[in-house]
Amino acid sequence: MVSLNKIMKNGKAMYLAYDQGLEHGPESDFNDKNIDPLYILDIAKRGKYNGIVFHKGIAEKYHKEIRKSKVPLILKLNGKTKLVSGEPISANICTVKEAIKLGAKAVGYTIFIGSGHEAEMIEDFEKIQREAHQNNLPVIAWIYPRGKKIKNDVSRENMVYAARVGLEIGADIVKIKYGGNSNDLKWAVKAAGRCKVVIAGGVKKSETEFLKQAKDIINSGASGLAIGRNAWQSKDPIKLSKKLNQLIWKK
Ligand code: FBP
After folding, report:
1. What is the mean pLDDT of the chain?
2. How do residues 222-249 score in pLDDT, each as one tens digit?
3. Is the CB of 142 under 6 A from ligand 1?
4. What pLDDT sits at residue 25?
5. How many Å apart are CA 78 and CA 26, to the nearest integer?
6. Tens digit of pLDDT for each residue in 111-150?
7. By the 8 A CB rule, do 15 and 212 touch?
8. Phi, psi of 119 (to 5 degrees)
9. What is the pLDDT of residue 250?
10. What is the CA(23)–ligand 1 centre distance, in A?
11. For 23-70, how does the pLDDT look when each residue is reduced to its tens digit (9 = 90+)?
C-alpha cells in the first residue's frame, strides 16, 4: 500500500480545495481576496492544512511559492467548467508525470458516477491510479454521483455507493459529499473499508453550522474534510481552520 504519511497526520487530514475557479468560475465563488491563489496558499500554510488542491495551471505559475510554503501539493488531474450541459465528464488536464515534476505529494481525480460518461472516467482513473502507485503517490478520488439518472446525489444509497466505488477502483482516499445523516456516513465509511473517507465542504455556511457538521463527520468515522468555500470565504479563515484542526485531532 502507498504511504499516506505526507498528506495525513495520525490517519486524519484536512485539505484545502481550490479547484473552484475551473469548476464554478470566479464570479460565483471568489471575492477580491480569495481570487488570488497566494491568499489561499497562505491560509493553507497558517491554517496547517495537510494538503492544498490546485489544478496544473496554478501549480505551474505559483510553483516557487507552493514549494516554499511546504504545504503538500495535491494536484487535481481533471476538471470541467459549469458551462456545459448534458451528461457530465471531467477532462484530463495534467498527467501523473507532470504532477510529480511539479512536486505533487498526491493526485486527485473526479469521477461522476451515474453519468453517461462514467466508463471513460473510470478507465482514465485506472491508468492514473497505476502510474501514481508505481511512483508511490497516493490517489484521492472525488466520487460524485451525477447525471440525469441521479435524483439525489447525497441520498444514503448514493453516498454509500460513492464511498464504495473509491475502495473498488483503488483510491487511497475517497472524497464524497455528506447528506447530513451521520448513520448514513457511518455506513459509507464502513463501505469504503481501508480506503479513507474525506468529506467536501459545500456552500458556505455559518461557522457554527459548519463546525457542528464537521464534528458529526469526524464522529461518524471519516478521516477528515477537504473543504474550499467554508474556509476561504470565511471572514477569518485562520481562526476557522484552527477550530477545525482542534476538532479533527480532538485537541
Ligand atoms: P467546497 O468545499 O467549496 O464545496 O469544495 C469541495 C469541492 O469538492 C471542490 O473540490 C470542487 O470544486 C467542488 O466541491 C465541486 O462542487 P460541485 O458540487 O459544485 O461540482
Report:
1. 98
2. 999 999 999 999 999 999 999 999 999 9
3. yes
4. 97
5. 18
6. 999 999 999 999 999 999 999 999 999 999 999 999 999 9
7. no
8. -60, -40
9. 85
10. 8
11. 999 999 999 999 999 999 999 999 999 999 999 999 999 999 999 999
Ligand 1, atom 7: nearest CA belongs to which residue? Answer: 200
The dihedral formed by the CA atoms of 172, 176, 182 and 186, expressed in degrees to the nearest 10: -30
Beta bridge partners of 163: none
Q: Is the CB of 44 under 6 A from ligand 1?
A: no
DSSP secondary structure letters along the chain: ----TTT-BTTBEEEEE--HHHHT-HHHH--TTTTSHHHHHHHHHHTT-SEEEE-HHHHHHTHHHHHHHTPPEEEE-EE--S---SS--PEE---HHHHHHTT-SEEEEEEEETSTTHHHHHHHHHHHHHHHHHTT--EEEEEEE-STT-S-TTSHHHHHHHHHHHHHHT-SEEEE---S-HHHHHHHHHHHTTSEEEEE--S---HHHHHHHHHHHHHTT--EEEESHHHHTSSSHHHHHHHHHHHHTT-
Q: How many residues does the chain have?
A: 251
Q: How far apart are CA 23 and CA 26, in angstroms?
A: 9
**144 CA to centre of ligand 1 in angstroms:** 10
Cβ-based neighbour number of residue 101 at 10 Å? 13
User: Torsion-angle region of residue 238: left (phi > 0), alpha (psi -120 to 50) or beta?
Assistant: alpha
